[in-house]
Amino acid sequence: MAPGIPQPHSYVERTFNMRIAAVLLTMTPLLAQEKPAYTFGTTVVNSAGLRGRLFLMERESEKLPNFKKHRPVGDIYTTTLNVWPQSFAEGFPNVADRFEWFAIEYTGKLWIERPGLYRFSLLSDDGSRLSIDGKQVIDLDGVHAAMAASGGAHLSRGVHDIKVEYFQGPRFNVALVLAVAPPGEGWRVLNMDDFKPPAGSQEWEKGKISQVQPQTFR
Q: Which of 65, 114, 139, 202 has its CA 20 to 30 A from that of 98?
């Protein structure tokens, strides 16, 4: 652990991060040799999931781009971000053949019925960032091997905006996994189907975020 890096402040966070480290050690060599089991998304539209806008980046980029200053080359859709460390050389069928120097901006909506502290964990290779309602919760920007960080915030009942920004630098290894621990529950990969609009959702108000927790690294 590098000096100055905050330690995980809860047993659950320490356990989750240790599980990530263990999985990385046991799975990375195998995944690097096999055909990827998970993708960043498909072209099948899913309005209740995450919409990912795909961007091409300049070579030797070292951080996430300013997405507002670039034009996307296509859209992909997914209900989970579950890309464990693996080799990636297939590109994006029917969108672009780029497998390095690309970025994706995922956006969607979380329909929160139970207010409370929601904890999030993000694992990525290379850089990534998680924002809820415009507030940064996790920042893993930069060119780096797979690494994880956890953060959290209190979310009120209502509709919340979620955004995950990601970029892949030089070939070939990639990773992007987003997990969530709702109030009183354990960790699981975030699935947008668990937070889709309930009956009568048209009457719901915009949710509020507060008490953003400092992120912790492993």
A: 139
Token readout for 62 is 């070292």
Residue 162, φ and ψ in degrees, nearest 5: -120, 140
Phi, psi of 127 (to 5 degrees): -80, 155
- Alpha carbon dihedral 48, 104, 30, 27, in 10-degree steps, equals -70
Confidence tier at 18 by pLDDT (50, 70, 90): low
d(CA 193, CA 191): 5
| pTM of the predicted model as reported, rounded to 2 decimal places | 0.83
Q: Tell me the pLDDT tens digit for each residue of 163-189.
A: 999 999 998 899 999 999 999 999 999
Q: CA angle at residue 143 from 137 to 147, to 5 degrees?
A: 55
11-217 sits in which CATH class?
A: mainly beta
**Domain-wise residue ranges, the chain:** 11-217
Fill in the amino acid letter for 123. Answer: L
Alpha-carbon gap, residue 197 to 146, rounded angstroms = 33
Q: Would residue 21 be called left, alpha or beta, if left means φ above 0 and alpha means ψ between -120 and 50 degrees? A: alpha
